[in-house]
Amino acid sequence: MIYQLKIVGNHPWSKVVKYKGSHDFIGTYFTRSGNRHTGLTPEDARRLEKELQYPEGHLSPLSRFWITYAIKVGATGTIINTDTAIGELQYLFLKSHYRVADGLQNLKPGNDWILLNQESEAKEKNRLNKIRRDAAKEFDKMSLDDMRKCLRVYGYRSDTMSNELIESKLYDLIEKDPKDFFVKWVNNKSKDTEFLLETAISKNIVRRTKTTYYYGTDVIGITKEDAIAYLDDKKNSDIKLAIMSATESKV
After folding, report:
1. Cystine design at 101: which of 111, 117, 139, 219 (Cβ 3.0–4.6 Å)?
2. Residue ranges per structural domain of the chain
3. Do the beta carbons of residue 35 and residue 96 sit within 8 Å?
4. Which residues contact 183 (CB under 8 A, 6 or more apart)?
5. Which among 84, 75, 8, 12 is positioned nearest to 48, based on CA atoms?
6. Side-by-side strand order, sheet with 218-221
């Protein structure tokens, strides 16, 4: 399998990815446990030693091999071919290196380099694009009232927003994180109860102190999830109806 090792983002002071002809070296380091990072399991080390015709122990963490071992990364990146023993050694060393992200989905702020595989990245991109397309379809099905409710579930006071602003704001949120839209709205079986709870809080009918929810002096949940489950419980239907009536009558 072919991977490309590339630098992430811009250099903090030069504001360019890399000057032409420049390069970096990614070397080993000591982990918090005091061991040298190699990225290899004992089994990996023994197997690669045989394939590379190294003596036994040459790839162990205590070997002098790792003192000078480093991978050179040029301005345009470096190709890693895991179909070769040397390439597999490089990949295993890099994929768990604290400064290297193994794919876009694992990219973190502290990463300086990223390993990209065109096939797997294409699959991930296609999956995300499908989520975006599906989110757009669900958005098109929504009425303006649905959008207003959805924004309330997102935590916005949508009752004071104009119709144009509601549609624009919700679309921006969906574009930014379509997966979150499915969690908060499309696949949320308790979205109506969550909307009721958020509306009741905004009108001081339900009180929230830190993470605890109160209706009058009664605790209805110590988390939002607890409060929603409480209101969805049939035995508490009278309280839910009272909250619904109060929210509808209070401007």
Report:
1. 111
2. 2-116, 125-249
3. no
4. none
5. 84
6. 207-209, 212-215, 218-221
Report the C-alpha gap between 240 and 232 in whole angstroms.
8
**Per-residue pLDDT reduced to its tens digit, 180-235:** 999 999 999 999 999 999 999 999 999 999 999 999 999 999 999 999 999 999 99
Within the chain, where are the H helices? 42-51, 65-68, 85-95, 118-141, 144-154, 163-176, 178-181, 191-202, 224-232, 237-249
Biggest CA-to-CA distance, the chain? 82
Q: pLDDT for 16-70, tens place per residue?
A: 455 566 788 999 999 998 999 999 999 999 999 999 999 999 999 999 999 999 9
Give the closest residue to 31 by CA, choosing from 5, 56, 57, 66. Answer: 66
Residue 185 is classified by DSSP as I
